[in-house]
Amino acid sequence: MHHEPKKSSLSSAAAQNGVLFGTAVCSSDLLSQPITRAILGNCSIITPEYELKWDAVCRVQENLEYSAADQLISFAADNALAVHGHTLWWHEAVPQGLQMTSDKQFREAALNHLTSTAARYAGQLHSWDVVNESLELDHGRRDGLRETRFLAAFGPDYIEIAFREAALLDPNAILVLNEMGLEYDSPAAEGKRRQMLALLEREKARGTPIACLGVQSHLTALEQPRDHPDFRRFLREVRAMGLSVMITEMDVSDHLCPRDRKQRDAIVAETYRSYLELVLAEADVLAVSTWGLSDGRTWLNGFRPRLDGAPQRPLLFDRAARRKQAWHGVRDALLSGRQTGSELSGLRIGTD
Ligand code: 9MR
């Protein structure tokens, strides 16, 4: 396998600031040589895009199926890549058969899934998204928690329960609370940032072993501001709490951009660059991951199709796995990133 020279790799640019660089990977990506080469040439960490989710592991109830996840994790081990586990408890990944069970049955199944999965990979993962997308302000609760099967079955303690179990089973993994939409520029997003800080304060007071906030970073070009004082302030407050940050799912939807490729690619690249520079300057960033590497395989064509029918170009490589301007935007930001809080890396709030 041909590796790109190290000097042109995103992971080596990131490493200059002590940061890992990576991407979400599907097991099918490994069938493509150009994609595999781009992963090996640019990444120091990978995230299984769906293979570890509860509904993927548990297609047949009571019968956990880990072979797809195992394949990605051994690919990572063979190539000295770190692995970010995604995700233990997420409302969208509850297996069909468990939606209608009693609370008691649901609690047993959810704990069984968490403990089996965390124990199986203990010592092999860099980090875990223990709980994913726990806030939804539209659900109208004072604490901002999303109404999910987990909340209904365990009550609001479910976050603490999940993190304590994960910490017991895999004490060396960095435990991450992953969230979407914290980075947007709107009154609703500001409300979510406030609720996230309140949630982190509450969990800290109880000694929940959350080490890191996962900021998904599904950005929209022309919507994401170049500077973003409210988000800056939020990241500073997160750092002041002793929490590190991972950018877990970054991509840039171009559905608002003009069709012209050159213009689109330039706007997307600039969105990546300015966003990453901001986060690297304000947070104790452990890792930066995009949600896929190549425009040939992105969730965005389904979720946010362009009105003109042209395929989205939201990632760092084109369909032929050639670097785009966005690759350079990310590299520039990784090289210019100045971290002031890296001594905080790895601290867990409220433990011991
Ligand atoms: O990109 C993922 C897609 O392939 C899966 O079908 C989907 C459901 O499991 O999840 C997508 O990834 C989501 C991630 O797990 C959590 N944050 C939002 C991502 C995009 O929907």
In terms of topology, how is this protein built?
Layout: H1 10-15, E1 20-25, H2 33-42, E2 45-48, H3 54-57, H4 67-78, E3 82-90, H5 103-120, E4 127-132, H6 149-154, H7 158-169, E5 174-179, H8 187-206, E6 212-215, E7 218-220, H9 229-240, E8 244-253, H10 261-282, E9 285-290, H11 300-303, H12 325-336
Parallel strand pairs: 1-2, 1-9, 2-3, 3-4, 4-5, 5-6, 6-8, 7-8, 8-9
The structure holds ligand 9MR.
Largest sheet: 8 strands, parallel, barrel
CATH class descriptor:
Alpha Beta
Strand-pairing-aware structural class: alpha/beta
Under CATH, the homologous superfamily reads Glycosidases
Strand content: 15-25%
Oligomer type: single chain
CATH topology: TIM Barrel
Query: What is the correct CATH architecture?
Result: Alpha-Beta Barrel
- Please report the number of helical segments: 12
Task: Give the overall pLDDT as a whole number.
Answer: 93
Domain count: 1
Which small compounds were modeled alongside the protein?
Answer: ligand 9MR
Task: List the helices and strands in order.
Answer: HEHEHHEHEHHEHEEHEHEHH
The general outline is: globular
Strand order of the largest sheet: 1-2-3-4-5-6-8-9
Q: What Rg, in angstroms, do the CA atoms define?
A: 19 Å
Approximate helicity band: 25-40%
Distance between the termini: 46 Å
Strand elements, count: 9
Spans of at least 5 consecutive residues with low confidence: 1-5, 339-352
